[in-house]
Amino acid sequence: MNMKVMYKTILSEYEQVFEKIDQDNVRDFIEKVKSYHRIFLIGVGREGMATKAFAMRLMHMGKEIHWIWDDTTPSIGKGDLLIATLGDGQIGHIHYICERAKAQGARIYVVTGSPSGKTAREAADNVLFVPAAVYRGTDEVVSSIQPMGNLFEQCLFVLFDMIIMIIVEETPDLSFEKMSARHRNVE
């Protein structure tokens, strides 16, 4: 397959995913993110990278953000939100973290391509379903010519960026200029 055919096919896959995403589901996720000041995030691999990018933008918005794997992460508890991205909905150590955070009173929001997965079913208070092909996923999603979870990971990155843009647009005292002022300045 030549590159031109490949990129057009991949763009078509993106379109199919974003057409299938439940807008009310995304709206609920946005409202939860807007309502919490202290947000903890967790993810691994390429979907973890998309989640880290989301965490960075949330920090730029002025929220108190903590990455679960960081040694400086404080305790989690009531009044905190944990956003866990796990494509197949059942990554063992992420499931464990979700259970522990829930036991401490945190709200758990799982972002997944497989809402039938164990963590989405058993530990999540809310689930954001991104219907894109995911590695080891079992739910009905948009299939992909790409390997493993590429489509899910790419759509996750774009969806998280769009969510940030929507929150900025809906928040009167927030702007990209204000966010830019919080960007790391020791580069």
From TrEMBL:
SUPFAM superfamilies: SIS domain. It comes from the Bacteria. Gene3D superfamilies: Glucose-6-phosphate isomerase like protein, domain 1. Residues 29-173 form the SIS domain. PROSITE patterns: SIS. Belongs to the SIS family. PHI subfamily. This is SIS domain-containing protein. It comes from Kineothrix sedimenti. The lineage of its organism: Bacteria, Bacillati, Bacillota, Clostridia, Lachnospirales.
